[in-house]
Amino acid sequence: MSEINGEAMIGSGISPERFQKAAETVLSWKRPLLVTHINPDGDGLGCVISMNEILRGRGLDPVGVLFEECRGRYAGMNGIGDLRVIENDSDPILGEVDGVLVMDTCSYTQLSPIADWLKRAELPKVVVDHHVTRDDLADEYLVDVKAGGASLILYQWAKAVGWDISKSMAEALYVGIATDTGWFRFSNTCSAAMRAAGDLIDCGVDVDKTYSSLYLNDEPARMRFLAAAMSGLELLCDDTVAVMSVTGDMLRAANAGNADSEGIVNTPMSVGAVEVSIMLLEQDDGIIKCSMRSKGVVDVAALAGRFGGGGHARAAGVRIPGDIAEVKNLLVKAIGELK
Fold first, then answer.
1. Residue environment code for 291-312, b if the CB has 16+ CB neighbours within 10 A, otherwise e
2. What's the pLDDT at 257?
3. Radius of gyration of the chain, Cα coordinates, nearest whole angstrom
4. CA 83 to centroid of chain Cα atoms
5. What span, in angstroms and rounded, lies between the C-alpha atoms of 148 and 187?
6. Confidence class of residue 7 from pLDDT cuts 50, 70 and 90?
7. Distance between CA atoms of 325 and 321, rounded to whole angstroms?
8. Whole-angstrom Cα distance, residue 315 to residue 65?
9. 190 in helix, strand or coil?
10. Residue 134 and residue 107 in contact, taking contact as beta carbons nearer than 8 Å
11. 249-281 tens-digit pLDDT
């Protein structure tokens, strides 16, 4: 992980000049690849959907991609149907693009299906991100570690260079900002996020309808997943560390998928004594997907960084090969060292 030109870690905002330069770069392309991280959340999806619309409106032929079909609460987002699913770097579409816009991540591990291609590709690359940890994978960076979501940076980019924000684009950006700030209650909720939300509402976002479509419309599989996760809950280290372990068998028994796991890692944080919550989700490829949350005593970005992951001090993730019990022991030991 590295700093970008010595300024990515400052988090003091992005100048109009940098926004303008990045816009000129992206608009010089004809067919850009738009990509976010594996298992995308509302912020990642909001980024890809909104930029897909922006660039189409500017006369480009963007290719917005996901690494797997979108399931769960975000499947009904407007614009999801315009995105293409590619599973790996053998997809021929990668040979047709002339630039890459990476959003809501700057980590090769979170772009694993095309990471090797990204490293080889001699194409111009631009990153829009708000995470502290990152790899040096692009030529230009719009990074603000204090921003309440990459979607907030895209909103600011659009405003800085005069791109119109349609109702559908506003909906995607609002979902990105709202979900990444925990509906404006997480520590990354800044005044800029609140002002942007207000403007996006003025652009036509129906807040009640948006919230209801995402959080009051779950499939039964999500509730079964929650039950499975809670059945595997352990309170460790004098009840300060909560660990939920979900095996592949438990996932299949619940008839659930990775998309059903979003946000469940937050559930044990309601316990006053809990300082760190971790959810371990066994994948078919022998990888353990680890989601982490913290109340601030432990920097979970630093914790994830020890194993090649990253994120924020209070919300991070990493993928670690191995057995679930072994990975749990590794993380709990590392937490003790970080306290």
1. bbbbeeebbbbbbbbebebbbb
2. 85
3. 19
4. 17
5. 9
6. very low
7. 12
8. 25
9. coil
10. yes
11. 999 999 988 888 888 999 999 999 999 999 999
SS (H, E, C) 87-112: CCCCCHHHHCCCEEEEECCCCHHHHH
Alpha-carbon distances of 237 from 243, 273, 278, 306, rounded to whole Å = 11, 10, 13, 20
Strand order in the sheet with 310-311: 233-236, 241-246, 276-282, 287-294, 315-321, 310-311
The amino acid sitting at 24 is E
DSSP string, 111-171: GGGGHHHHHH--S-EEEEE--S------SEEEE-TTSS-HHHHHHHHHHHHT----HHHHH
Query: Structure tokens of 302?
Result: 């630093």
Do 44 and 36 contact (CB within 8 A), yes or no?
A: yes
| pLDDT above 90: residue 312 | no
Neighbours of 27 (CB within 10 A): 17
294 neighbors 276 (Cβ within 8 angstroms) = yes
Chain centroid offset of residue 81 CA: 19
Residue 103 bridge partners (DSSP):
128
Strand partners, 310: 317
